[in-house]
Amino acid sequence: xxxxxxxxxxxxxxxQSRGYLKQxxxxxxxxxxxxxxxxxxxxxxxxxxxxxxxFQNFLAAKDTETESLLQHNSALYKxxxxxxxxxxxxxxxxxxxVHSIVNMWHRYVGYYARATKxxxxxxxxxxxxxxxxxxxxxKLSLSTKKRDKYLVTSKDLTILITxxxxxxxxxxxxxxxxxxxxxxxxxxxxxxxxxxxxxxSSSYRGTNEAITYKDCYVHLLRDANGSFTFKLKVIQxxxxxxxxxxxxxxxxxxxxxxxxxHNGVMFFFAMAIANNAFKCYETLEDxxxxxxxxxxxxxxxxxxxxxxxxxxxxxxxxxxVHESRALTFATL
Length: 332
Prior knowledge:
The protein is of the alpha+beta class. The chain has helices at 8-17, 26-33, 42-61, 74-86, 98-116, 122-140, 154-167, 176-189, 264-274, 284-288; strands spanning 216-222, 228-235, 251-255, 298-300, 314-317, 320-326.
């Protein structure tokens, strides 16, 4: 069944029935005439403030008293990015890398748009970025290196889990943290996402945004030999740049494995049972006895209604766990 086709008259009538007004009030006209500002996380706001200060320092170094008298053209901003490159140390080489300077430039472009409620011309933005990658790179012998991003390998995971359960003498506020860390390690080993995709990100402090049980799907599957196995699918709703994406197609799958230290599903089950989250299963023993009806090859376990919006990983203290407070990245 396709979407209903409407005539122009029917479309107009439908829009009006849903609240569209042909004539806008003066307040509404003023509102839609404003430049719409994107939501920024706390960390991004701080970076905007920082890059604004860098630009003011640049103006001070040029003995420019009034910013309003400046011509905001490519020449000014090429001078600005050169000042930036020469006024600080880099992390990889003595000077910042090309990648770092380009990132700073794009942060400034975003800062300028928010501060002035107008945008720099696209040709200026592109010209300065090309200048950084070309003439400035050659002039200052800038490096094009980027910092390595190391993913967790199977060997890394084995070392970390073994230490956590066999050698770690840390006195945890609550032993739940040891299980949660184990699951988090397996989770991170299965994705290249940042920590904030699993727990509350430091950039979104206080939002309580982290994976919840409604983001998790536990599938019971029949193997070819007739036995059963579990798979855990986790929807990644909090990937960088994708937090407003309502699609469920960004996910990872964690398999149940014979090697317990790599079995993220069992760590997840331990938490879910402790959280009393499953429908029909109160103990891990009950869950391990689950099977499929004849003629079915798969089944998705269900969550209790009250568990759907609970975070999977909880904050805890020596007094107990906080059932509605998501684990923060700073706690990992």
